[in-house]
Design a protein that fits this description.
By secondary structure, the chain is mainly beta. It has strands at residues 2-7, 15-19, 26-28, 31-32, 52-56, 64-70.
């Protein structure tokens, strides 16, 4: 999944919240949004619960057009 979006000048905080059934990699403008973990989320029993991950990503964004990649 690829998504482009615009950011206005003055952005100070941005939280990316993701979830999925299985492992995935999230990149913001080509940079890994979770460099401390290769794939998100961790293994879970999906019939019992689905985990989510929240990351502060303001440092990965720039004024103007930005891109989110989910693989």
């Amino acid at each position: 999944i690829r998504k482009t979006f615009d950011v206005r000048e003055g952005l100070t905080r941005a939280t990316l919240v993701t979830t999925g059934m299985g492992a995935y990699l999230v990149r913001v403008n080509g940079r890994n949004a979770a460099p401390d973990r290769l794939f998100l989320p961790t293994d879970t029993e999906q019939t019992v619960r689905t985990e989510f991950d929240a990351r502060e990503v303001a440092g990965l964004l720039r004024t103007g057009e930005n891109r989110l990649d989910f693989d």
